[in-house]
Here is the input.
Amino acid sequence: MEKDRIMRLAKVSKDGRIGVAVDTGSGIKAIFGDAALYDLDNLVVQGGEALAKAGGKVLAQGESVAQDDLEFLPPLIKAPKILCLGLNYKDHAAEGGFQVPEFPTVFGRFNSSLIGHGAPIIKPATSDQLDYEAEMVAIVGKGGKNIGKEDALSHIVAYSVFNDGSVRDYQLKTPQWTVGKNFDDTGAFGPWLVTADELPAGGAGLKIETRLNGQVVQSANTSDMVFDVVDTVSLLSTCFTLEAGDVLVMGTPSGIGLARNPPLFMKDGDVCEVEIEKIGLLVNPIKAA
Here is the structure.
């Protein structure tokens, strides 16, 4: 990709029309109604040049829009696999009483749980233990099996931000975490897909922070991961084929609500912000079901 084609793209809606938006650095431009442009799932599968071409068209032909006039949708909604890493920061493993894993602790998320920036994270009626988790997302743009570490980053096309809203009592009812990690409207994702060329290799060295009602509750650096993006791509691809469009949710640092004394869970009326340096700010209100 040419340097001027490096992109920060979002899937948006305005006045009932779906479109794609580009952060120009001095504002936002968008084109609405062109399915070939706003289907970011399809563009990711086509690779970085397709993302760049779509973004270039928006820059050249798009209309200027105010961010407050846009509804941000989850950037991707058709991922073949959403693979989440647990216990991937040493301090987070320790606060939960777990050993640092020798192999990535992986669980799945479902596309049906995803919401966008600005949409409410729904606290289920059956639980008062809705927790926050700031996470970096790495998006696979080129599939593969048995990928060597030296090639791993060539398979990642973009990065984003995730809040892995976790219903802790349901998560811990069984040894498998699937149910507690997949309540409807708990997987906040976005707002931007940031092409890999715009960031340090592997998204390393970036500040990651969560704020609940303005209070900092998590603050760390993406270099603190136990398994970084290179390790994750290489190790997981020895088990199953990674596919273009797969979403890797790279784990959360310490500071989760469950580990606090007393516990700090999200409740109706709260606002949760997850921010990752150079990638973006994801903000979601909390609403009771």
User: Anything to note?
Assistant: The longest strand covers residues 156-164. Residues 1-5 have pLDDT under 50 and may be disordered. The helical segments are 35-38, 40-46, 48-61, 90-95, 168-171, 229-236. The chain has two domains: 3-72, 82-288.
